[in-house]
Amino acid sequence: MKFHPTFKTGAMATALLLAFATTVQAGTGPTTISERARAIQAKAINLDTHLDTPALFSRPGWKISDRHSFEQDGSQIDYPRMVEGGLDGGFWVVFTSQGERDAQGDLKARDAGLKRLSEIREMVAANADKFELATTADDAARIKAAGKKSVYISMENAYPLEHDPSLLSFYYKQGLRMISLAHISHNDFADSAGMGVAPEGEHGGLSDKGKAMIAEANRLGIILDQSHASNTVFDQMLALSKAPIILSHSGAYDVFAHSRNIDDARIRALASKGGVIQVNSLGGYLIDTGATPEYREEMRKVYAAFGGQRRLSDAERAQAKAKIAELDRKHGIRTADFDDYMRHLLHIIEVAGWEHVGLGADWDGGGGVEGYEDITALPKVVQALLDAGYDERQIGGILGGNTVRLIREVQALADPEAVKAALE
């Protein structure tokens, strides 16, 4: 692991964290953004590695080119807010919720994945003056220089490939450059980390099908994402992959013991092999909110009554929000805030080294905390890192430089013949 001479450790890091806490409004982050922070962010390539915003592309009347409001429609990313927050782009997710693992379920997942892939590409085509598909490390800087936002494509949950894993080469041709194997439950490829306490494994980590997927992703230069998979999958993926891996949206287990988070020993192992961990902002992964299985079931029923969370009209969303607020009061649910997010981020930087950390807030997929509700608040992170003692080079790496380096290294280790065949 490489360390910058000004990298903070031990008591010094603790002192800096305490000093940082005195410069912000309690819980919600910096109250002002300095000119230096703005200059650092403007110079850096700002990438988030887990944007679930494509789930909104099929929402009636919702357009990426319009400025929306988190308070009004719950969305967190759109083009005007990306400009305001300084986000240059990132990995836009082909997400498929895990369903039945039978022939019918696999076909349904295949079709859902292809539909989401086409929606991402259609968004780019319809907004060619604002967005551009990105497939290589150099694309990030080139697209930023052209005044547009980069659209790398990733897949969260390989469920759409269960029916036919060879579809990976088609996805690659269409722009896919990152893949995770599982989501919140096991599938044919890998065991999941679950949603709080890790469930009993099914495959003992990776299945043979999962191991084959790792080999094929390496051949094509597709980044392997361990987020949502079990600790055993992490160990096996790190050992099997010929290229560094990523955790596209994860937190620190040693800060909050949640099965979706990763422990310090594994963070160090990730860094030792050149990998990067991108820090998640989903409140339930940052602190113990008090959410019980009973609470989650009641919340599920609220959304089910409206036909599903993604299908809500603005009026229905307001009604659902009010009902969820009632549930929160009933169950005494606690809310995570910006300080909780920074606690994870600063801890992970200390453990991994700044060269191995980035941002993957899980926008439009459950991420966001009090004081960091949407992408317009990204400059707060820059200011907080500056207040904590990190310099321009380090902050630039965390904002996106480390992600670009990882893309470059993974693609450099690909099999040129496999890449050529997939693109033909």
TrEMBL record:
Pfam families: Peptidase_M19 (PF01244)
PROSITE patterns in the record: RENAL_DIPEPTIDASE_2
InterPro entries associated with the record: Metal_Hydrolase (IPR032466), Pept_M19 (IPR008257)
Keywords: Signal
Descriptive protein name: Dipeptidase
Residues of the signal peptide: 1-26
Source domain of life: Bacteria
